[in-house]
């Protein structure tokens, strides 16, 4: 798929920037795994099992859903079913509330934006560029992170994966701070998202820039959809510190994404690799988004 509204060429100024979230705007593994470990450490004695056994039970739930961030996976472990299987979902959540509170506390303490994020957002906003967010995370998980980071006001729209699984225990939080998160029927890495998002904003495909840390999930779909792309590689991440713990509960055998899926060497060679978001201005020109009637 190429082209789009107006069929603007690849030297067109960028009027819409679509940002990935995890490991693009903040260190995902560096906040998620410590929070998960706090939850496990609190939940294991409540469930009467060893922490390592609980990790194995969580891994089984994550593999069933294909999602290491499956919301309230703790309620679907074998041990939780054994103790609380006759209760409602909300009653189960209340029984394990100390564990969820431990997760929330550590997440709030460790989730931080990279230093270059807010300055880049502010500069793009001053340039009149529209900002969108697009994540593989389930909407309910992403909504909480956006609230904690206080960045909802920068985005016109945010797109995420839908919540799947058993009924959500308690009120849904897919809308935070007045910003509705749009659940995509065909989420990342489907390249048709380029068509959906550019139509929502009324820009040509080539006037949209997708920024992310994964070639497979962010860059290849953007290029396949006819948009532009920038790959960001963050230095000094916490993956080496927390990856072994993540693999104990992950639905994947390894938390490594293929970096050349569906993308030729020539196409990848035209994608700039950034170490900081302020380098966007070294590779692209930006222009105000065109509003209706202008």
TrEMBL record:
Protein's UniProt keywords contain Hydrolase: yes
Keyword Iron-sulfur annotated: no
InterPro entries: HAD-like_sf (IPR036412), HAD_sf (IPR023214), S-2-haloacid_dehalogenase (IPR051540)
Keywords from the named record: Hydrolase
Pfam families: Hydrolase (PF00702)
Highest taxon, organism lineage: Bacteria
MF terms in GO: hydrolase activity
Xref: PANTHER family: HALOACID DEHALOGENASE, TYPE II (AFU_ORTHOLOGUE AFUA_2G07750)-RELATED, HYDROLASE, HALOACID DELAHOGENASE-RELATED
Protein's name in the database: FMN phosphatase YigB, HAD superfamily
Organism for this UniProt entry: Tessaracoccus bendigoensis DSM 12906
Lineage of origin: Bacteria, Bacillati, Actinomycetota, Actinomycetes, Propionibacteriales
């Amino acid at each position: 798929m190429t082209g789009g509204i107006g069929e603007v060429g690849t030297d067109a100024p960028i009027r819409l920037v679509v940002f990935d979230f995890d490991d693009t705007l903040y260190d995902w593994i560096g906040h998620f795994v410590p929070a998960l470990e706090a939850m496990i450490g609190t939940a294991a004695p409540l469930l009467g099992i060893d922490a390592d056994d609980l990790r194995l039970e969580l891994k089984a739930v994550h593999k069933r859903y294909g999602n290491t961030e499956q919301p309230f996976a703790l309620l679907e472990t074998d041990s939780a079913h054994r103790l609380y299987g006759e209760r409602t979902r909300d009653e189960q959540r209340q029984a394990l509330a100390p564990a969820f509170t431990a997760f929330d506390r550590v997440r709030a303490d460790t989730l931080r934006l990279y230093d270059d994020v807010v300055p880049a957002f502010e500069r793009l906003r001053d340039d009149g560029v529209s900002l969108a967010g697009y994540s593989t995370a389930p909407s309910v998980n992403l909504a909480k992170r956006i609230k904690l980071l206080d960045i909802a006001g920068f985005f016109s729209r945010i797109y995420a994966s839908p919540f799947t699984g058993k009924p959500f225990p308690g009120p849904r939080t897919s809308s935070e701070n007045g910003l509705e998160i749009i659940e995509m029927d065909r989420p990342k890495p489907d390249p048709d998202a380029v068509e959906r998002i550019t139509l929502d904003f009324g820009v040509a495909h080539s006037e949209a820039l997708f920024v992310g840390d994964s070639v497979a999930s962010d860059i290849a779909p953007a290029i396949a959809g006819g948009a532009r792309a920038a790959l960001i590689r963050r230095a000094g991440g916490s993956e080496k510190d927390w990856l072994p713990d993540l693999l104990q509960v992950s639905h994947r055998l390894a938390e490594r994404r293929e970096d050349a899926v569906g993308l030729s060497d020539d196409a990848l060679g035209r994608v700039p690799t950034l170490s900081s978001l302020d380098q966007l201005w070294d590779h692209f020109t930006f222009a105000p988004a065109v509003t209706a009637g202008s």
